[in-house]
Amino acid sequence: MLPRKKIPPGVPFLARRLVVDLIPAAIILVASRLFDFIFHFKLPVVTVTAGVVLSVPTLYALHIKLYQWHVRRAAAHLGAVLPPRWKGRSIGDRDLLDHVLEHYNNGYLGEGIWDKMGELGYLYDVTIMWGTNYVTTDANVIKTILAMEFAEFEKGEEFRDAMGTVLGSGVFNADGDMWKFHRMMTRPYFYRDRISHFELFDRHAALLIKKMKDRFQGGHAVDFQDAIARFTLDSATEFLCGKCVDSLESDLPYAHNDAVAPNLVRKPNVAERFARAFTEAQLIIAMRSQLGWFWHFQELLRDKTAEPMQVVDQFLTPILEEAIRRNRASRVKGMASHVKDADEDETLLDHLVKLTNNSNVLHDEMLNILIASRDTTAATLTFAVYLMCLYPDVFKRLRAEVLERVGPTQVPTFDDVRSMKYLRAVINETLRLYPAVPFNVRVPNRDTTLPNPDPNGPRIFVPAQTPIGYSVFLMHRRKDYWGPDAEKFDPDRWLDERLNKYFTANPFIFVPFNAGPRICLGQQFAYNEMSFFLIRLLQNFSAMELDLSAQPLDARPPPEWASADGQKGKEKVIPKSHLTLYVYGGLWVKMTEAEKET
Ligand code: HEM
């Protein structure tokens, strides 16, 4: 492994900025010297100083004017118009940043953006501190970005810069040839359903369910979000690397109000340290992307991800080195498979080391897929359990399907999973209302146009390098796409006439796994893992409920939410998002064991 960069990421950013910003000042200084040399006339110090000081704002003002002029001309040239703009009240529209951050920290998910859609339409410009961003929830625009004009829209340099210290050059963070290379390496592994995956899901599910039962028997609540994140972490590390981090081996946490909790001061073990560090690194990069280029100033002295990433790498590096050693040894013995397809029971790492022994490529690839697979799947299962607690009828109906198709104790098979229509409907409905990746961004690599959300309007111009934030979360709740009951949790919409009326007629209104060439590689794996776990859970428990008293005090929805329309008014927890969706403060539940049914 190459050592991680020691220079804080704010330093090169500032150095680049200073070089650009100081050019006019340097020109003024050199010009004043030349003036003196050629014409023997010394410009007054006050004049030169004023010129130097004013050069930076003048340069910026000129740059902005020139940019606006270019944008108007280029838009006219392409026969397009500019989108409506959300105008702020302060210099640089700084108040809009405050508004967005205030909602991000204290409001309901997506409100900061959604607020303005009624007034400005489903694609608008929010320029903050002279940096232009577009935001959209329009299915046609999202389809254009992700699929129709895929080659023109990238993750972009700004995203890569903010994510780089964690994601490196992995598949999530790459564009162009680098992305194609990663995708080409990884895709064959995901082609097939593997029996070995079901075996490992079963082992980890059994352990988790036993731990949950122990807690419920003692009358304690369980934070299902924490518990399921351990299940997905253990499953992912085992199927990816062949070595499980064993986070389920350590104790589950107790609720703040549990009599046991105050007496419990434990040192976190390796698995917990890994899981925490892994989450912390993701929180940091998520905050960077919220702050735009501003984040560099917060990291002038230190890279905030360095410490957590050290913990993550302590786990990952020996596993990678061991895999490379194993592969080399088997090559020497002439045993290595040079077949590019993945073998039935090999891990993703086994598959990748046959294609490259570059430890940095392997490191980034494994870490990216670990991030891609763990939190997304855990989030979806967390919200599925949350919704089943809110809607006991859905729980009952799903449990009846489980008992009818699989039975009370049998291990589910691929055929079981495929045949369970209501289970698929519950998962899809969860992904619709609570998509694990609720917000995302793409950047055009050249000046281009997008469809106008108003079908009669002209196309909308987008300057090169303008980040286009799109919200799947908000799009999945639009009444014009899903009908008047769009905000209602109703799995039947995937089974009755509404399926054809809405989704089949316009499939891009539902893209929890993204779409187009960059569609999620692990979609089938995720459906298998989530289905398997839910079947096991419902075989073992006959009822589930939220334990709201266990919810930390600051993690309860503010009382004023109760009078809001739609899902916001029904929330018993606070959904939040870093890169992925999560429940703030955890999802505290109690369940009744199936055997204990009266
Ligand atoms: C419910 C579970 C999951 C959801 C909702 C989900 C969603 C997504 C989304 C929205 C993206 C696109 C991100 C972007 O381009 O910005 C993505 C990409 C990806 N996902 Fe998933 N994912 C899930 C599970 C998994 C699992 C289990 C794996 C692997 C085992 C996985 C592997 C990947 C990979 C490798 C990519 C990158 C694809 C690329 O950029 O070409 N995902 N996923």
TrEMBL record:
GO terms for molecular function: heme binding; iron ion binding; monooxygenase activity; oxidoreductase activity, acting on paired donors, with incorporation or reduction of molecular oxygen. It comes from the Eukaryota. The chain crosses the membrane at residues 14-35. Keywords: Heme, Iron, Membrane, Metal-binding, Monooxygenase, Oxidoreductase, Transmembrane, Transmembrane helix. Heme binds at C520. Its cofactor is heme. Signal peptide: none annotated. InterPro entries: Cyt_P450 (IPR001128), Cyt_P450_CS (IPR017972), Cyt_P450_E_CYP52_fungi (IPR047146), Cyt_P450_E_grp-I (IPR002401), Cyt_P450_sf (IPR036396). Belongs to the cytochrome P450 family. This is Cytochrome P450 monooxygenase. It comes from Pycnoporus cinnabarinus.
